[in-house]
């Protein structure tokens, strides 16, 4: 397992501490200057433990006080003169304790009260160890700080301080031995041997620590030749000690770093500073590896740098994991930044937002930087009616998952609906906990659902209150989901007996076979109408699809109307119309004979006695002949009008282009005489009676030419599809029709122009024919602005041309 970053830092610290003790031990072996060693020890302790103060306290001869023999950080003039009580101070308490004394906070300290010296320098934290033996202490070595470090004082820190105190104690003992003139040479030699043995043991302990270290360690001299490697170095690099010693450290260079990297490294360590950085090196077999590297300079007794120690902690696996993680994060960010949904990651403890994608700004209309500054700022945008619920649910994360739909109010006042989910997520080693959330804008979906609910409510209201009939909603299984209407009440059928049942369970087989195909067709989007006899009632049924806001069919509807009475009246009306048609036919037919007689005698008078008549007589005779002719035309028109239903042909597909071409041929002479211009768009095929439709357009064309005014007639014919119908428009640029006359132009024998031309039956006949085709005819006109007659006719299936 690769150590964590915290473990790596701690291990590097311990290596540096060991190196510092080794360096201090070397100085103690090589110098007799105790004062210099005392100061070097204070400096080394302060720098290595990263504290602002270090003190070397010595017991006075009367054992009442401890004097500040040397130190770092204290105000000028105190070293060598300042004293502290030998019992009621930290140093005094340490002197009489069984082991090191750690002060976690001087303000809370109750083991001693003489804290004036430390408090005057704002010291709050520290460690103290005895210099010498517990039985015969020389003094106290202490490290102090005003601010608490990022880490607590550890056992390793205590061990380091004790090792420094031991080095100092050995040096003090050696200095005392050298200064004791009463000792014999043999005694001094034995004491020196003892001191040397102790120092050698200290060095041996350091060497064992280095040899056992899992970090690759090597030393090199000023000529950049490797002088020592530990076993971990060999294991990491693949070089044996024999292969590495005497070679430059550059044998490990990978080519991944430029010259500036190595130049800065050399300048740093040769200037006496410690170099710490990640490095990529190459093993003997050519394989690259990554390491955290610390290179520290080591000085001789004169303080001159004479060698360098390098410590490497291999982090190849961690770097690969980091690279994989970076690639994963890059893919995640690329995906997240292009999502329509908002995605965010936050810390479970602090609620700090660690990442939020750009969709936040699109959805919320706010800068996402506001979330990084204040993770709770999103609550400001939550709709006041939803805020308390959202805040309560948000506070329960991560103990409970967050899954809420709520409204937000954008800065422009727009209200949006969101569906927001958030769940806790752990890293693989369960050391890292995060909250991952996603927010989707569901405004359109919510509006559709509400519209659907409203539509369903309207449908159900219609179903329950449908007058003179019944309505039923059915699903894809042909089971009713809602039924109602006055017809059910009239027939004594309870709606509860219909809902949830299949149509085959409700109606007789002969009825099911008739309308079940229409039910399926409705679910496919088709609309159909049919008539059935049920419960002695004549019913008109209509099946149609029910669509949602996306225009998708989600149900079918059956609308049934009781037309029993209507059918009765319709039969009576048909019989009445038939009698009227028979009467009109008989009347017009019976009028033909006397009219022919009148016309014949008038013509005979004109031939035989025309010369005998004066001018006034000739005029009277002409009036009589013209009146008889118009009477004949009116009788013919009335006959046609009465025969529209009975004498028409069966409907079939009719090509209107061909029909209007026939009309133009029939009116060719009239068109040429009036210099009329008729333009036609491409016309469709319709379902109808070709002969009757020819009559309609011939009448419309003739009227357009007759009432064109002073200018040559200009007539245009256009067609437009609307659902299952075509609308055919005939437009002229003639005299137009006064609005007060437009309501009566389709009545029989009605004329709206003063020239008394025509029979007054043409437009009534057009209306009768169009009604037979289940269509409509109407006029749009302004006096002097021309006229447009529009006719609707049924389209032929799905044929648009």
UniProtKB/TrEMBL annotation:
<dbReference type="InterPro" id="IPR003661">
    <property type="entry name" value="HisK_dim/P_dom"/>
</dbReference>
<dbReference type="InterPro" id="IPR004358">
    <property type="entry name" value="Sig_transdc_His_kin-like_C"/>
</dbReference>
<dbReference type="InterPro" id="IPR036890">
    <property type="entry name" value="HATPase_C_sf"/>
</dbReference>
<dbReference type="InterPro" id="IPR036097">
    <property type="entry name" value="HisK_dim/P_sf"/>
</dbReference>
<dbReference type="Pfam" id="PF08447">
    <property type="entry name" value="PAS_3"/>
</dbReference>
<protein>
    <recommendedName>
        <fullName>histidine kinase</fullName>
        <ecNumber>2.7.13.3</ecNumber>
    </recommendedName>
</protein>
<feature type="domain" description="PAS">
    <location>
        <begin position="202"/>
        <end position="247"/>
    </location>
</feature>
<dbReference type="InterPro" id="IPR013655">
    <property type="entry name" value="PAS_fold_3"/>
</dbReference>
<feature type="domain" description="PAC">
    <location>
        <begin position="402"/>
        <end position="454"/>
    </location>
</feature>
<dbReference type="Pfam" id="PF13426">
    <property type="entry name" value="PAS_9"/>
</dbReference>
<feature type="compositionally biased region" description="Basic and acidic residues">
    <location>
        <begin position="178"/>
        <end position="200"/>
    </location>
</feature>
<dbReference type="InterPro" id="IPR035965">
    <property type="entry name" value="PAS-like_dom_sf"/>
</dbReference>
<feature type="domain" description="PAC">
    <location>
        <begin position="275"/>
        <end position="327"/>
    </location>
</feature>
<dbReference type="InterPro" id="IPR052162">
    <property type="entry name" value="Sensor_kinase/Photoreceptor"/>
</dbReference>
<keyword id="KW-0175">Coiled coil</keyword>
<dbReference type="Pfam" id="PF00512">
    <property type="entry name" value="HisKA"/>
</dbReference>
<dbReference type="InterPro" id="IPR003594">
    <property type="entry name" value="HATPase_dom"/>
</dbReference>
<dbReference type="Pfam" id="PF02518">
    <property type="entry name" value="HATPase_c"/>
</dbReference>
<feature type="coiled-coil region">
    <location>
        <begin position="311"/>
        <end position="338"/>
    </location>
</feature>
<dbReference type="InterPro" id="IPR029016">
    <property type="entry name" value="GAF-like_dom_sf"/>
</dbReference>
<dbReference type="Pfam" id="PF01590">
    <property type="entry name" value="GAF"/>
</dbReference>
<feature type="domain" description="PAC">
    <location>
        <begin position="513"/>
        <end position="575"/>
    </location>
</feature>
<dbReference type="InterPro" id="IPR005467">
    <property type="entry name" value="His_kinase_dom"/>
</dbReference>
<feature type="domain" description="PAS">
    <location>
        <begin position="328"/>
        <end position="401"/>
    </location>
</feature>
<dbReference type="InterPro" id="IPR003018">
    <property type="entry name" value="GAF"/>
</dbReference>
<dbReference type="InterPro" id="IPR000014">
    <property type="entry name" value="PAS"/>
</dbReference>
<dbReference type="InterPro" id="IPR000700">
    <property type="entry name" value="PAS-assoc_C"/>
</dbReference>
<feature type="domain" description="Histidine kinase">
    <location>
        <begin position="586"/>
        <end position="797"/>
    </location>
</feature>
<dbReference type="InterPro" id="IPR013656">
    <property type="entry name" value="PAS_4"/>
</dbReference>
<keyword id="KW-0597">Phosphoprotein</keyword>
<keyword id="KW-0808">Transferase</keyword>
<dbReference type="InterPro" id="IPR001610">
    <property type="entry name" value="PAC"/>
</dbReference>
<dbReference type="Pfam" id="PF08448">
    <property type="entry name" value="PAS_4"/>
</dbReference>
<keyword id="KW-0418">Kinase</keyword>
<feature type="region of interest" description="Disordered">
    <location>
        <begin position="175"/>
        <end position="200"/>
    </location>
</feature>
């Amino acid at each position: 397992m690769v150590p964590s970053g915290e473990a790596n830092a701690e291990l590097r610290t311990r290596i540096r501490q060991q190196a510092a003790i080794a360096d201090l031990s070397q100085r103690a072996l090589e110098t007799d200057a105790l004062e210099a060693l005392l100061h070097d020890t204070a400096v080394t302790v302060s720098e290595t433990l990263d504290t602002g103060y270090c003190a070397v306290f010595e017991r006075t001869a009367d054992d009442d006080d401890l004097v500040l023999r040397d130190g770092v950080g204290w105000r000028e003039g105190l070293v060598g003169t300042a004293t502290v009580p030998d019992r009621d101070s930290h140093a005094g308490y340490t002197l009489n304790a069984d082991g090191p004394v750690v002060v976690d906070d001087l303000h809370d300290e109750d083991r001693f009260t003489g804290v004036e010296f430390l408090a005057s320098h704002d010291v709050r934290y520290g460690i103290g160890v005895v210099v010498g033996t517990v039985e015969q202490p020389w003094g106290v070595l202490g490290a102090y700080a005003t601010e608490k470090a990022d880490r607590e004082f550890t056992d390793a820190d205590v061990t380091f301080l004790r090792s420094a105190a031991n080095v100092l104690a050995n040096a003090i003992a050696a200095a005392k031995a050298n200064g004791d003139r009463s000792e014999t040479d043999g005694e001094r030699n034995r004491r020196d041997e003892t001191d040397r043995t102790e120092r050698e043991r200290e060095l041996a302990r350091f060497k064992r620590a280095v040899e056992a270290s899992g970090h690759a360690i090597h030393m090199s001299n000023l000529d950049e030749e490797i002088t020592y490697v530990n076993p971990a170095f060999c294991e990491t690099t693949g070089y044996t000690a024999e292969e590495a010693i005497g070679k430059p450290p550059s044998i490990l260079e990978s080519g991944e770093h430029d010259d500036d990297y190595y130049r800065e490294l050399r300048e740093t360590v040769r200037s006496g500073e410690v170099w710490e950085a990640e490095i990529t090196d190459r093993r003997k077999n050519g394989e690259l590896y990554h390491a955290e590297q610390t290179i520290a300079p080591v000085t001789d007794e004169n303080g001159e740098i004479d060698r360098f120690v390098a410590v490497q902690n291999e982090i190849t696996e961690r770097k690969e994991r980091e690279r994989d993680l970076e690639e994963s994060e890059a893919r995640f960010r690329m995906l997240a930044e292009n999502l329509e949904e908002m995605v965010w990651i936050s810390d479970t403890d602090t609620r700090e937002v660690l990442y939020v994608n750009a969709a936040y700004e699109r959805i919320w209309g706010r800068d996402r930087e506001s979330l990084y500054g204040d993770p709770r700022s999103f609550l400001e945008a939550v709709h006041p009616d939803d805020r308390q619920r959202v805040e309560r649910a948000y506070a329960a994360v991560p103990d409970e998952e967050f899954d809420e739909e709520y409204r937000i109010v954008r800065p422009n006042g727009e209200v949006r609906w969101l569906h927001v989910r958030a769940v806790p997520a752990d890293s693989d080693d369960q050391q890292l906990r995060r909250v991952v959330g996603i927010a989707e804008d569901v405004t359109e979906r919510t509006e559709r659902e509400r519209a659907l609910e409203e539509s369903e409510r309207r449908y159900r209201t219609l179903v329950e209150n449908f007058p003179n009939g019944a309505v039923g909603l059915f699903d894809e299984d042909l089971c009713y989901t809602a039924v109602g209407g006055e017809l059910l009440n009239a027939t004594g059928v309870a709606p509860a007996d219909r809902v949830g049942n299949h149509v085959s369970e409700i109606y007789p087989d002969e009825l099911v076979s008739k309308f079940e195909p229409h039910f399926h067709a409705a679910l496919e989007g088709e609309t159909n109408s049919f008539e059935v006899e049920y419960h002695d009632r004549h019913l008109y049924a209509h099946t149609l699809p029910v669509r949602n806001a996306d225009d998708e069919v989600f149900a079918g509807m059956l609308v049934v109307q009781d037309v029993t009475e209507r059918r009765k009246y319709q039969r009576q009306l048909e019989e009445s119309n038939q009698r009227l048609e028979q009467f009109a036919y008989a009347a017009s037919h019976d009028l033909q004979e006397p009219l022919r007689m009148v016309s014949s005698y008038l013509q005979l008078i004109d031939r035989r006695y025309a010369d005998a008549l004066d001018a006034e007589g000739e005029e009277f005779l002409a009036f009589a002949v013209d009146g008889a002719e118009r009477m004949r035309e009116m009788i013919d028109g009335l006959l046609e009008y009465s025969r529209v239903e009975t004498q028409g042909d069966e409907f079939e597909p009719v090509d209107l282009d061909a029909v209007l071409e026939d009309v133009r041929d029939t009116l060719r002479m009239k068109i040429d005489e009036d210099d009329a211009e008729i333009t036609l768009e491409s016309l469709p095929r319709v379902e109808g009676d070709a002969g009757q439709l020819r009559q309609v357009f011939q009448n419309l064309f003739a009227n357009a030419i007759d009432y064109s005014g002073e200018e040559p007639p200009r007539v245009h014919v256009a067609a437009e599809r609307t659902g299952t119908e075509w609308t055919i428009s005939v437009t002229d640029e003639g005299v137009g029709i006064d609005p007060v006359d437009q309501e009566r132009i389709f009545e029989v024998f009605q004329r709206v122009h003063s020239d008394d031309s025509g029979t007054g039956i043409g437009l009534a006949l057009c209306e009768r024919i169009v009604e037979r085709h289940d269509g409509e005819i109407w006029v749009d006109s302004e006096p002097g602005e021309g006229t447009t007659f529009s006719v609707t006719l049924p389209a032929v299936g799905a044929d648009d041309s």
